[in-house]
Write a structure and sequence with these properties.
Blueprint: E1 2-6, H1 11-23, E2 28-33, E3 51-55, H2 61-69, E4 73-76, H3 83-88, H4 91-111, E5 114-120, H5 146-165, E6 169-174, E7 177-178, H6 187-196, E8 202-204, E9 210-212, E10 214-215, H7 216-229, E11 235-238, E12 243-245, H8 246-256, E13 265-267, H9 282-288, H10 297-310, H11 312-328
Helix pairs in contact: 1-7, 2-4, 4-5, 6-8, 6-10
The structure holds nicotinamide-adenine-dinucleotide (NAD) and thymidine-5'-diphospho-beta-D-xylose.
Length: about 325
Amino acid sequence: MRILVTGGAGFIGSNFVNDTVRDRPGIEVTVLDALTYAGSQTSLSSVRDSANFVEGDITDADLVNTLISESDAVVHFAAESHNDNSLADPGPFVQTNVIGTYTLLQAVREHGVRYHHVSTDEVYGDLELDDPAKFTEHTPYNPSSPYSSTKAASDMLVRAWVRSFGVQATLSNCSNNYGPYQHIEKFIPRQITNILAGARPKLYGAGKNVRDWIHVEDHNSAVWRILESGEIGRTYLIGADGELDNLSVVRMILELMGKDPDDFDHVTDRAGHDLRYAIDSSTLRNELGWRPRYTNFREGLQATIDWYRDNCSWWEDGKVAVEARYQSQGA
Ligand code: NAD
Ligand code: TDX
């Protein structure tokens, strides 16, 4: 099987490629990645000799068409992925997330290639903090940010291409991932690397917002399960019952790193900040038999802290620029 992985130099994509090469020797992997600020070939250094790498843009129709004509399946991770950036400049989000997905869909349609679309729970908007409900496959779309609205638009394109053109696609909407190789602009690695760099963690607002954390390896094992056993045209929600408010996560990071749990700063809140995400993944568990392996968040977080401590060279060069950008936004 020849598989094309878009965004394979990013956080989730590089973990997917590394795990696939390690666990599935029969699979030939080709990565298509534009190496934006969020992509790094260093994240793929252990598979340099076993996976093909193509530097290119998913909006480049000729390139996409050629690569897809040589593939049996596409797993589409490439995206502009950070909410804060989408508030500062939404243009690249429309271009990559909407036009890029359209470009891939036209090519898989043309060549009859299996396609899996990686998306987010943020397409459903947010839940009240005291609401017992979780997102399900039937929750209406209600995205809040430029990022989540472009992901919602891309999901809609996939559904239409399945129904109108018979494209062989599945979709997944996952909750917040954590683990190695996550860009240090994101919440958990930002706080870990702040502490390692001698700075204080930064909490948006009061920190009451809830995210439903899942380890990146669990997200990727679910993607493989859907790719192999999912029903064409279906959407599967991926989550590991990891709801925690941001304040608790910051305090846990500080404690695990041997610091005073109150040693953090409150900074300007995100505009339109979604309150709570929560995933009901019972369809995936009951119909496809998937289970997460990392059910102890504290242990997964400790391993993630250790990874950033042991791999300073992976993130150190970009740290000053990321924090300067946040500082200019009061965050
Ligand atoms: P990321 O920002 O770490 O990586 C994105 C990758 O895509 C980078 O390597 C970047 O270079 C590449 N890329 C961006 N624009 C491109 C373009 N035009 N052409 C080719 N490559 C391009 O993102 P991530 O956190 O790994 O997210 C991957 C996917 O998973 C995204 O689709 C995201 O919406 C989805 N998702 C993420 C999370 C999460 O918690 N991070 C949760 C649910 C879903
Ligand atoms: O410094 C910070 N302080 C802080 O309190 C940062 C960067 C974030 N936060 C808060 C905002 C959110 O409530 O932490 C929470 C998580 O923030 P992000 O890491 O930016 O993630 P989020 O906005 O929840 O979106 C993530 O999960 C869904 C990914 O970035 C998306 O790509 C994915 O779709």
